[in-house]
Amino acid sequence: MPSPADIPAPVSAAARAPVRVIAVASGKGGVGKTSVAVNLAMALVHAGQRTLLLDTDLGLANVDVMLGLSPRFTLADVLAGRCELQDTLLEGPCGLWVVPAASGKRHMTELTPREHVGLVHAFCQLDLPIDTMVVDNAAGIADSVLTFCQAAQDVIVVVCDEPASVTDAYALIKVLSRERGVTRFQVLANQVHNHAEGRQLFDKLERVSARFLDVTLHYLGAIPRDEWLRRAVQRQEAVVEAFPGCPSALAFREIARRARQWQSPLGPRGHVEFFMERLVGQGGNAEQDPLRSAVA
Ligand SMILES: Nc1ncnc2c1ncn2[C@@H]1O[C@H](COP(=O)(O)OP(=O)(O)OP(=O)(O)O)[C@@H](O)[C@H]1O
Ligand SMILES: [Mg+2]
């Protein structure tokens, strides 16, 4: 099977502006990763950011379903060598770009680590002027999830008020820090009943992480449990688009405002990274990346 790792980067890519990449992950399934990724991406678009939303969940893809889009090609086709990444691009509401995955296809966990890294590097061939990319991850702590989080500049860990959610979020943070050198995390509480609940969830995670891990957790905020969000899902629209005045939409706009204030990428960090070519010349050297050399 042709691997995206084999696709060379066009030289012109290095000249383009850096892209901020935000990965959304959780460990536990069903806590709201896709809802967060879709609405954060849409809120960033509303704020004037040219944004690409990447669905990496090949097992249960649903970014396209949530946005009512009909993909012709998906990430599964790219991995099978049937098309190039560029061919999967869909234009969503208000100019949001989407790279969809495909449900029920080969799961990311069936791909090799080399193919995950290859997929990350395939983004350098995308000829798309964007400021931000939001990456929706599958549940769990599989190698693919770790690679996509490591390859992003910021990782949002979504938690909700269930014991398994906090334990699984901790497990994700632990493997990302110990195995992939990711030490900074943004924690987002979802489906909370009030602000205090969100803060308590963060405090719980922060206490145990401070005790056993060398990481920094930031509290990004909380999204309320909101019936309007469910209605938006049924209408196959982002809630920030369908019901912009509802509580969850207001919270997503605030999260997007905070995310826009995060420091821009300064240069390559010396490991697998999305849009690395666009970072070269910003203060680093891509040739130093051993993983890249391994797959080149
Ligand atoms: N803040 C919220 N208020 C109300 N319902 C919510 C909220 N966040 C998520 N949901 C609902 O919870 C369900 C799961 O959400 P979502 O698909 O975003 O989770 P996920 O973490 O992406 O799941 P998976 O692990 O399967 O990918 C959806 O039906 C969604 O509508
Ligand atoms: Mg999901």
UniProtKB/TrEMBL annotation:
UniProt-listed SUPFAM superfamilies: P-loop containing nucleoside triphosphate hydrolases
One Gene Ontology cellular component: cytoplasmic side of plasma membrane
Presence of the UniProt keyword ATP-binding in the record: yes
Boundaries of every CobQ/CobB/MinD/ParA nucleotide binding domain copy: 22-237
Xref: InterPro entries: CobQ/CobB/MinD/ParA_Nub-bd_dom, FlhG, MinD_FleN, P-loop_NTPase, ParA/MinD_ATPase
Annotated Pfam families: CbiA
Residues engaged in binding ATP: 28-35
Entry's Gene Ontology BP terms: negative regulation of cell division
Any one GO molecular function term: ATP hydrolysis activity
Keyword entries, A-Z: ATP-binding, Cell projection, Cilium, Flagellum, Nucleotide-binding
Name of the featured protein: Flagellar biosynthesis protein FlhG
Source taxonomy: Bacteria, Pseudomonadati, Pseudomonadota, Gammaproteobacteria, Lysobacterales
